[in-house]
Amino acid sequence: MQRVLTLLFSVVFTHILFSQNTTKPILTAKKVVSQQVWVDSIYNQFSFEEKVGQLFMVAAYSNKDEAHNKSIDNLVEEYKIGGLIFFQGGPVRQAKLTNRYQAKSKVPLFIGIDAEWGLSMRLDSTYRYPWNMTLGAVQDMKLIEKAGNQMAKQSKRMGIHFNFAPVVDINTNPKNPIIGNRSFGETKENVTARAIALMKGLQDEGVYATAKHFPGHGDTSTDSHHTLPIVNFDRNRLNDVELFPYKELIKNGLTSVMVAHLNVPSLEPRENYPTSISYPVVTDILKKELQFEGLIFTDALNMKGASNFKKPGDIDLEAFLAGNDVLLFAENVPVAIKKFKEAFDAGIITEDRLMYSVKKILAYKYKANLNNYQPIVLDNLYQDLNAVEYDALNYKLYENAVTVIKNHDKLVPIRDIEKEKIAYIKLGNDKSDTFLANLRNYASISEITNKNLDSVLVQLQDYTKVIIGYHKQDGAWRNHNLNFKEMLWINQIAKQNDVILTCFTKPYSLTNLKNFEDIETIVMAYQNNDIAQTIAPQIIFGAMGAKGKLPVSIDDEFKVNEGIETLEIERLGFTIPENVGMNSKVLTKIDSIANYAISKKMTPGLQVVVARKGKVIYQKSFGNHTYESSQKVTNTDIYDIASLTKIVATLPNVMREFDQGHLTLETKLKAMLPEAKNSNKANATVLDMLTHQARFQPWIPFYKATLDSLNRPSTHYYRSEFSEEFPIHVADKLYLRKDYNDSIVKTILDSELLPKKQYKYSDFTFILFKEYLEMHNKKSLEDLAHTNFYEPLGANSIMYNPLRKVNSNLIIPTENDTYFRHQVIQGYVHDMAAAMQGGISGHAGLFANALDVAKVMQMYLQKGTYGGRTYISENTFNMFNTCYFCKEGNRRGVGFDKPQLGNEGPTCGCVSLTSFGHTGFTGTMTWADPEKEIVYVFLSNRTYPDSNATNKLSKENIRENIQKLIYEAIVD
After folding, report:
1. β-bridge mates for residue 729, sequence order
2. How far is residue 839's CA from residue 831's CA, in Å, rounded to a whole number?
3. Going by C-beta distance under 8 Å and a sequence separation of 6 or more, which residues neighbour residue 609?
4. d(CA 640, CA 798)
């Protein structure tokens, strides 16, 4: 007998000690002796009942009452059960209960959980990964392995030893009511590759993986929770398809298998006999043929597929006799132990058989370090289970999963935004706000909410494209199928318009839609959550390319493994800081600085955007429109960006003039403006003017000459109503004489030059360049900037004179003007000279939100390209981003501001010398760094209510301190 047992356990321990192929060794040979000593010592202390107790893993909940908790206490203390499988509840509650039950247990308990897509499958307030079906679209197995790593870390943090995953069922039946989204797909190869990756991820981090549902639940039409499903395939088919993943996972070191409650006549000859209690299935096939030596679990024995067959106790005994090691969700442990004792006394169960399973269980407990059990630490539990690194991976998973399955005429990515008029229509019954908001990050999108199809079709006649979002509640077992009305809407709209159908549902949702001919583009986003709704617009507009492949076929129209790889065309995308080498925790400190500035009344509110490597990683708004207002600043509100106008409007158009051969750095002002020929500025070169060393005066308060003796706008220059003679709109009910712009230009040209050629910041250059651009192109600067840049960039919030285009509620006030216009300045440019030019000037006048400013800066960072289009040549950009006079103490580039040469300047002092940007009087700043691939935008209305008050925002270096944090957040 001793020889038999020695041989038996050498086999068991060999499996436990060393996994096969790719999985790491579970135990070193050095520890095998201590393991055997521990196992034997524990086993030898057990009574018969305690040995049997180790076989049971009982259901526990952390959302039930104390009566339930005490019932578990009783099973642990009185019946010495071996483990618990936790179901619904919350993480802290479960952790407390785990500690409680473990403290009462003679031998530490195994803790298991169904966490197929993470702990959130059972627990609230925990992390959710994509369904397996979504992962089935991912082609990078390393990402899935990393998901397994993270799931394991979260499980270990919760004191969990078994994750009952991966599901390796091959979902060849689209109508399968219980597997569906839980499967990686419909082919054995795809399912197996992903199951191995997830298994490796789990087990490499020390959590046991459990492949399920043996021998294969993927081609069933009923749910084993409610009945006994039948699998009517012959042995050859089962061996080739359903058993294939198990063979491969076993080769790769699989720890455990869960046996399903199925009726498989070709494997079990007894009629309607569940596989979970079938000796031919569990022992003959799984253990002998497949040579599996790990732990074998039954599926939950309370499921009707099993419990309808035998009573509690009897079903447990049958399962054990079939060859299972662990009896999951036993309904009546006391009765079951009694049945086991009767069977043992009758010689039906032998000591060898009992010892085999119990010692195997104990050996796995040793490997799980339960010989040195430590209770769960409750401190920071929630934070640890929801770390930002998990979001970072989730973004990558969805980036790799979203699948374009049709793309007629390469409609996606949408390229020429300026030629498009795009509508959005929501179908389905779940949220879509994130999707629409992210679509609007790229283009103007009109949401059509009319409920009448005929009216909708009339509305859509003027639109070039219609994006239909199909949004269904994100549940693994929910019905996502299109209903008749939804199919009718899709078909009718697609007959009339170019349609991009984006489905935040399982692929099977489209099986009812029989006609795909009129639909130009179909995007499968798989799940309706914020991350999927953030990724899909990026693919539609080309911030990233689609990489996913269909995990299952959609009727005969779209086959498994199909997926169109679309182009990435260098538009700003959105992700988590960690995905671009940044630290989220450091970036969150920006919030504190922003809130500090507001609390100290440095500014009523502000916006901040940070992008790195082409991805926006921080976009937040703080405070209110004014100190008196309760209206919160939002990301879509627009600020007067003041002198940022110089590099956002004037400078890019000047660069175009260079590319077209109309200007060079040596071009003189007299060649640009005829009226300058006889001025003292005639020979000022483009280079000197744009580097602020052309000896121009810094500023002239033009408005003062137009005030009367009471410092009010003089009626000689102004009227309260528009007329042909007074057409220049300066402010509300304030119109300036039409000839005054000429006076501004003349005053500049007639002004004295500074005595010495040196750096002196001046607005005059950009006012004069505006005159040149408009004269040379016979278009206003507003039209040039809009047509050449903002419209094709999708920077729709950047505009002059916003009151003509948007609701005033979106415009942040800049000042309560008590010295010139005598009114609250909202929607009119704050800069007095720009206001006297009708709100359109080369040095000021633009309004924008931070994201759209970032698009312009990203275009610069990409050396003049964006969205698949070249706006400025690389050579021209490099020419302008050069500090020509640094040795002379002038830090300026050509139009751009550059980092300080000494201790004081516009930046934190931590940026690279190749970086560039600008600041603005209203409390704005934007900066880009090619070396670190950073774009930073800060917008505020620090001038409200009084621009003449001390500039505390500048004195306390708020903008610079935020920039410093951005650089401190870089980790690569």
Report:
1. 735
2. 9
3. 616, 618, 619, 850, 851, 853, 854, 935, 936, 937
4. 10
Please tell me the distance from the alpha carbon of residue 295 to that of residue 82, in angstroms, as a whole number.
Answer: 13
How far out from the chain centre does Cα 815 lie? 38
Give the pair of three-digit tokens for residue 231.
């699998």
The string of pLDDT tens digits covering residues 568-614 is 999 999 999 999 999 999 999 999 999 999 999 999 999 999 999 99
Phi, psi of 704 (to 5 degrees): -65, -30
Burial of residue 640 (number of CB atoms within 10 Å: 0-12, 13-18, 19+): buried
- What sign does the dihedral 502-506-508-509 (CA atoms) show? negative
Residue 704 DSSP class: G
Q: What pLDDT was estimated at residue 772?
A: 98
Q: Are 829 and 614 spatial neighbours (Cβ–Cβ below 8 Å)?
A: no
Edge-to-edge strand ranges of the sheet holding 799-800: 639-640, 846-848, 799-800
Distance from C-alpha of 849 to C-alpha of 624, rounded to nearest angstrom: 15
DSSP 290: S
**How do 605-612 and 639-640 pair as beta strands?**
unpaired
Q: Give the strand order in the sheet containing 718-719.
A: 718-719, 734-736, 728-731
* 423 Cβ contact partners less than 8 Å away, ≥ 6 residues apart: 445, 446, 447, 448, 459, 460, 463, 465, 466, 467, 497
Whether residue 358 has pLDDT greater than 80: yes
User: What is the torsional sign of CA 799, 801, 807, 809?
Assistant: positive
Distance CA 521, CA 403 (A): 11
Three-state secondary structure call for residue 365 = helix
- Closest Cα partner for 214 from 272, 307, 299, 131? 299
Is 262:230 a contact under the CB 8 Å cutoff?
A: yes
CA atoms of 566 and 144, how far apart (whole Å): 22
CA atoms lying within 13 Å on the CB side of residue 32: 14
Residues whose CB is less than 8 angstroms from the CB of residue 775 and which lie 6 or more positions away in sequence, other chains included: 673
Please, are residues 150 and 98 in contact by the beta-carbon 8 Å criterion?
no
Mean pLDDT of the chain: 95
The Cα-based distances of 953 to 213, 341, 449, 761, 916 in angstroms read: 62, 80, 43, 20, 21
Measure the CA–CA gap between 439 and 74, rounded to whole angstroms. Answer: 56
End-to-end C-alpha distance for the chain, whole angstroms: 61
Place of tokens 């619904």: 88
- 891 pLDDT above the threshold of 60: yes
* Cβ-contact 300, 329 below 8 angstroms: yes
pLDDT at 22: 39
d(CA 504, CA 536): 9
Which of 10-14, 303-307, 823-827 shows the highest mean pLDDT?
A: 823-827
pLDDT at 25: 43
pTM of the model: 0.95
Task: List Cβ neighbours of 59 (8 Å cut-off, separation of 6 or more).
Answer: 84, 85, 86, 87, 300, 302, 329
* Pairing status of strand 728-731 against strand 734-736: antiparallel
The type of residue at 508 is Y
Nearest-angstrom CA–CA distance, 814 and 603 = 10
pLDDT tens-digit series, residues 659-677: 999 999 999 999 999 999 9
**Cα separations (Å) of 264 from 214, 227, 230, 231, 281?**
11, 14, 6, 5, 9
